[in-house]
Amino acid sequence: MTDFAGDAAAAAIRSALERCNAGAAFGLPGGSNQVLFKALREGRTRLIVPTHELAAAFMAGSYGRVAGRPGILLTIRGPGFAYALPGIAEAWQDSAPLVHIVDAPPEGPHQRHRHQALDQAAIVRPMVKAVFGVSELAKLGETICLAFETAQGGEPGPVVVQLGGGADEPGSGRGVGVQDTVAARAVWARVHRARKPVLLLGQGCVGAAAAICAYVERTATPVFTTASGRGVLPEQSPWCLGYDSLRGSTDQLNAFLRETDLVIAIGARLAFNGTAGFRVTLPSERLVHVDASAGNLNAVYPASSAAAISAEAFLAMAESGIAPRTAWTPETLAPWRTQIRAVYSRDWEPTIAGQTPQQFFGRLRAELPDNALVVTDSGLHQVLARRYFEVRQAHGLLLPADLQSMGFALPSAIAAKLAAPSRPVVALVGDGGVLMSGLELAVAVREKLALTVIVFNDGYLNQIRMQQLQSSGQGHGVALPVIDFRALADAVGAHYAAGDSATLECIGPATRSTGVTLIEVSVRDSVSVLAAAARGRAKAVVRSALGSRWEVLRSWLRR
Questions:
Q1: pLDDT digit string (tens) for 248-288?
Q2: CA 12, 18, 22 angle in degrees (round to 5)?
Q3: Contacts of 98 (CB under 8 A, 6+ apart)
Q4: CA-to-CA distance for 83 and 54, rounded, in angstroms?
Q5: C-alpha to C-alpha distance for 48 and 19, rounded to whole angstroms
Q6: Would you call 9 helix, strand, or coil by DSSP?
Q7: Residues 43, 88: Cα–Cα separation, whole Å
Q8: 539 to each of 186, 280, 450, 535, 554, how far by Cα in Å?
Q9: How many CB atoms lie within 10 A of CB 450?
């Protein structure tokens, strides 16, 4: 039986990763991969050991998103594999290239009675592009390189390599990068005939950002994006509509779309979060769709023309000499930009360090250079950041997409800094997210990274609490333990700043420092939150008094 825990296997993996230009690997050593960790310490691929496998998986996926090449995830089988699963699922939903190298479970009868035996392929198959098994040392390097190519080909995603057993198994697809140039030319023909088109851009356009900006300026074509695509066109551009579903402006966007004669969706899956829960109206006769994965075409939104081709390849086909300018002008777009960028529901907005969220995120924007990379966790702070923070460069706002995992921000910010060392990186995280992955601060300090972490301290799982207040005026199950963030920063060797002075004065210097800075800002209920909670309590009283007649009354009021 081949020894995949020995020196020869470790050397083959290290060599393959270096041939593939793998920039960083993330994981924890255990009984089966100790020799591999030693080999990687002596190689060119940077090895990061976080506090647990979930953080490692978030790091690998986010490194892949920012670097444009797979992040490498290393775990032992069984518990290490299982702990990484939410991060792998996040990479799947975020279209992030990731290669997970793990030893295969033991073979033989009575699987449940064997050490660390899980049917890993069956568990992970729905959330990966492929599962490769390798049982011969001679094929190990080849298999690693194939996994690397598969992870970043077509629509990016995670791939698993099991060492020591198991046949190759397909995952959930997404293709490996076939470019349908014939269909793409037909799409371009539609684009050139349109007089009032609009571009809908997703994360798949990040690599084509420069070409898109040039095309937009040359042809006067307006743009809106999914949340993951924000910054592909700088949002201060007069051609950027500045849409985000969390501003509550989907009706205004749909009104604008009725004025267009063609919607050109590029590099966007058109999934739940990217379309406001499928409430963005995209009539098939006026929709053309370009995406690296054929599986995303005509999935939820049927298109009248579609092409399976990457954004980079599609934009490279643009013929500058015949692309006409559209009928749009900055003057005709200005009223639409104002309507679509407006925030239409502020009932549940707290104060942040004594300021409105709009003031806080406006100040954050003013303190950061245009190329700053801001990473959010899942929670109320993400809602507010997406409403009020203007994104001025591709990957300027990195967030968990359709899976919305808490604990995402801090590990992902570490990975983002490794992938883009010249860009200032700021992690936005709630106190609930810190409880999940806050000790990654120690990892950032150990790795000597320049990183700013802004913690929104409200003492609650506040987005859930706000929903509860709206319903009943009472929160339940959402209070968090009190954390001394100054003591946490001191314990791991990070700098600390707090309060209004930190918000107003420390953000800029922190992003220009060479170490890790934790900035704590207080989040408090505003007058509007208290008023909305009172309405929720009144609603609960009425509901209790009416009993079963409450639903009858609600139905009548809706009519």
A1: 999 999 999 999 999 999 999 999 999 999 999 999 999 99
A2: 120
A3: 57, 60, 61, 64, 70, 71, 72, 73, 88, 91, 151, 157, 158, 159
A4: 6
A5: 19
A6: helix
A7: 25
A8: 55, 31, 49, 6, 11
A9: 17
Return the structure tokens found at 161.
């390599």
Rg (CA), the chain: 25
Residue range 201-239, pLDDT digits in tens: 999 999 999 999 999 999 999 999 999 999 999 999 999
Residue closest to 287 by CA, chosen among 269, 308, 303: 303
What is the C-alpha separation between 302 and 308, in angstroms, rounded? 14
Q: What is the pLDDT of residues 491-541, one digit of tens each?
A: 999 999 987 655 667 888 888 888 999 999 999 989 888 888 888 888 788
Instruction: Return the ∠ at Cα 152 (arms to 149 and 155), rounded to 5°.
Output: 130
Task: Give 152-156 contacts, CB < 8 A, sequence gap 24+.
Answer: 152/64, 152/68, 152/69, 152/70, 152/97, 153/177, 154/178, 154/292, 154/293, 154/310, 155/95, 155/204, 155/269, 155/291, 155/292, 155/293, 155/295, 155/296, 156/64, 156/65, 156/70, 156/95, 156/96, 156/97
Residue type, 411: P
Spatial separation of the C-alpha atoms in residues 527 and 313, rounded to whole Å: 51
User: Two tokens at 359?
Assistant: 């003031």
- For 113, 226, 273, the CA distances from 278, given in Å and listed in that order, are 46, 12, 8
Residue type, 231: G
Beta-carbon neighbour count of residue 122 at 10 Å? Answer: 10
Picking from 501, 504, 503, 499, the residue whose alpha carbon sits closest to that of residue 522 is 499
| pTM for the whole structure | 0.94
End-to-end Cα distance, the chain = 71
Residue 382: exposure state from Cβ atoms within 10 A (0-12, 13-18, ≥19): buried
CA 203 – CA 205 distance, rounded (Å): 5
Question: Pairing relation of β-strands 351-352 and 305-308?
Answer: unpaired
**Which string of DSSP letters, residue by residue, matches 436-454?**
HHTTHHHHHHHTT--EEEE
Alpha carbon distances (Å) from 321 to 189, 520, 550: 14, 53, 64
